[in-house]
Amino acid sequence: MEDSSVEDSPFRVESVSRDEAPQFVLPLVVRIERSAPPARTDALETAARAVLVVLSDERSLGDGEWAQVMRDWQDARIRKVVRRARGAEWRRAEALPGITVTGKSAEVRVFPPVPLDGWPKDLARLQVSGTDLDDPEPPADTDPTAPVLWMSPEIGMSAGKAMAQAGHGAQLAWWELTDADRAAWRDAGFPLSVRTPDPDRWRRLTVSGLPVVRDAGFTEIAPGSCTVVADHPALRQKRAD
Fold first, then answer.
1. Which of 15, 47, 96, 213 lies 20 to 30 Å from 224 when distance is taken between CA atoms?
2. What is the DSSP code (8-state) at residue 38?
3. pTM of the prediction?
4. DSSP string of 180-218?
5. 87 in the Ramachandran plot: left (φ > 0), alpha (ψ -120 to 50) or beta?
6. Which residues contact 101 (CB under 8 A, 6 or more apart)?
7. How crowded is residue 137: how many other Cβ atoms within 10 Å of its Cβ?
């Protein structure tokens, strides 16, 4: 992914020094049982919260056990890959170091970054495809006081791809917040919504000055595609000031 608002962002499509660094990926695994798959929007929201949870976890900070690999990951391209698991696959994934985040119907486990070609075998064997999910009911209206990750109405994505993009948007918002705003969001449990605006609103959002995710084009969509706008009230207020 790429953030169009950051000059030397790890999300730039162009070849930069970050491409020369060792490449890592943040693995996310969504639980999809045949009998009870999660709702699509809830899966996207839960994935976004999972990214925020791992970014803010004490093991990812300072001298924590995940801190170095988190820094290495963020020094290179910011890649996220979502895979699916059920039954025994999910139980094996839960046994690996990571954090499980639960939504209304979704369970997503996030793991510390791994080398691009060095996935643990119990994660490497999981499938990326098969993450097509639906919303049984239209998502509720958003809370105007809470963050919203706006997904492009112009690009079709699998649920797994969209979950990764939502995670990118949450990460961009996190990076731009002050320490105080980060702490307030974390202490509130990272409330957020993922929604798709109408095309006119989408066009206004992309030029609003809020963080924009532009995909690097590794899978599914063309390089440079604008996929998410991260609309956090604190960032909205900062641009209004």
1. 47
2. P
3. 0.89
4. HHHHHHHHTT---EEE---HHHHHHHHTSSS-EEE---S
5. left
6. 46, 49, 50, 53, 107, 108, 109, 110
7. 7
Amino acid occupying residue 135: D
Cα Rg of the chain, angstroms: 17
Alpha helices in the chain (DSSP H): 40-56, 67-75, 87-94, 121-124, 159-176, 179-187, 199-206, 233-240
**How many CB atoms lie under 10 A from the CB of residue 230?**
27
Residue given tokens 């895979």 in the structure block: 83
φ, ψ of residue 170 to 5 degrees: the values are -60, -40
CA distance 241 to 235: 10
* C-alpha to C-alpha distances, 121 to 32, 40, 96, 117, 238, nearest whole angstrom: 19, 27, 11, 11, 44
d(CA 47, CA 99): 11
Distance CA 195, CA 201 (A): 12
